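call fold(seq) -> tokens
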Amino acid sequence: MKKTLTFTLLILIIAFVGIRSAKAQDPTADPGSYMNAIGTAETNMNKSYMAYISAAAHSSRKRKIEKMRNQAVSSILDCQNAINFLPPYKGDNSLRQSSLTYVQLCYKVFNEDYAHIVNMEDIAERSYDEMEAYLLLQEATNDTLEVGNQRMQKAQKSFGAKYNVTIVEQKTELSDKMEATSRMSKYHDKVYLLFYKCNWEDNQLTEAINQKNVTKIERVRSALDKFSIEGLAVLDTLKAFDNDQSLIYSCKDALTFYKKEAEKDIPQVTDFFLKEENFNKFKAAMDARPENQRTQQDVDNYNKAVNDINNAVNSYNQTNNDLNSGRNDVNNNWSATEKQFLDTHTPYYK
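ret:
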């Protein structure tokens, strides 16, 4: 069960600053203009990045999404070049260097680290632990950028204080949208992991059933029961995201299905396999006995065993069909709900 949306949610500069300064053509004319020149370059970088995030959330066209990502990478390089062309302000290179360090970090994360995260996506599908590690890597990547962001803001304040520049911290439409996207992503991933943990065990259960491996079936069934109960308990503590409980409801429906599967349906499957195994042994023993040595009691017992196993097969087939139908409903419902949730709560930006 792949995620509907996979992207590295890099949190670039969230807290924007406004500088009160004289409007000058020359960015080095005064410290305020100098700070504005750097801020403008960074804002253009953030705009391109947010446009990519919006495309990734609202478009299913992979070519378009990749094009927007490439444009975001190019905008980071444009930002770096713009700041590189600025000379130090009156010999003071502190703000310029801090900005360059941050922008270079953005490029490294979004270009090199992004590729590593994408390469991990297929690996993540192999187990819950690897999926969790995959999402934690994205979170750690964001944390790295956030530290860089804080250092950049500290450098801005130090520069402003040194040159008596009035800095007005302000929220903008762009910063609000980036912050909202970050908040949504963290919420989504928390619910998604609850779903994925059980969904992955269910896939393992299907594999064990196909192998008729009763020992593995019981081990996975027990884990699925445990994880579904734990997940439902966590969901009961979660609040709606901006009055939207759809993701919680969909995950609850899925985990409730998995809990019922583990506690009621799978024991019937296991019981059938044991009956089938016993019947095959009985049949082999019956076939090995010559007909002239079979008693009427042997024949009656065999006929009863055939009747019982036929009934068991019918019951097993019905249970298996119900499980397959339930799985499809759960997966389809989750995928549709997840897509709608991400589409609704990821801001549009061009």
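Confidence is low (pLDDT under 50) at residues 1-24.
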